[in-house]
Structure formats: structure tokens, C-alpha cells
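ok so I'm stuck.
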Amino acid sequence: MSLTGNADRADDLVQGTLMRAIANIDTFQPGTNMLAWLFTILRNLFRSEFRKRRREVEDADGSYADSLTSAPQQHGRLEFNELFAALAKLPLVQREALLLVGASGFSYDEAAAICGIAVGTIKSRANRARTMLAQLLMPDSTGERVRTPRPSVREVL
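replied:
not stuck anymore, here's the structure
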């Protein structure tokens, strides 16, 4: 009771101590102090439970667990498929410029060298590809955005 300060926890601690003592009775050396041996088991069990409880969050009514949510994974997969389909609709030269600059991280100079064209040409192709991709991914009958894209899509745009 002096360790836990709670009668129910103290009862559980004594019961756990006795269960461990019975399970490990072969480690007790006859002729030694059994009370000291039991108290050592009790103290070690208390410390183990204390460390375990310190990492746990008290949530009797479940309100904390209800606040922990994560976004469903299927939306990301659907948006990836939409992006992939929209990229396929771009002209090849624009798609190439956008993937080199936006997705692969090449500079405009490096992308122009890879394609064998002028830097201004790669810039205009990438810009046109971004504009067309934005229209393909976020159209509405009025031309307004339906939703904001995820951060990964925004990086490419």
C-alpha cells in the first residue's frame, strides 16, 4: 500500500508478486530470508509496472483515442492514379520537361542539356505542362478549382 497509494493496485501488486514467486520458486535458496525475496520481487514488479504506466495515457472514457486519427490511405492512391492519368495526357515534350524539372529535381540548365534544347525552351515547356496539369487535375464546369491538391501534387505543379 505504501508503494501504490491505492488499495486495488496494491492487491494486484501482491497477487502478481505471489504468481511470480510461485513460478520462480526454484530460484529461492532455502535458508535465506523469504520475506526479503518476496519484497524484492514486489519492488521489481512495481518498478516495471511504473515504467510501463508512465508510457501509457490514462483514457478511461476513450476521448483521447477518438482524437487520434490518420488520413485514409486510399485517397493518396487515387490521387496518384489521377496524377498519372493527367501526366499521360500531356504532350511528350511537355511531360518530359516537367518530369525532369519538377519530379527529378534537375535544374533548367541540366534538363536543357539532357534534352539538347535551349534553357528558355525547357522553361516554357515546363510552364505549359504545369498549367495544363493544373487544369486537368482541378477542373470544374466553371473552370474553378474543386479541391486543393495534396503537397506532393503541389510540388510538381
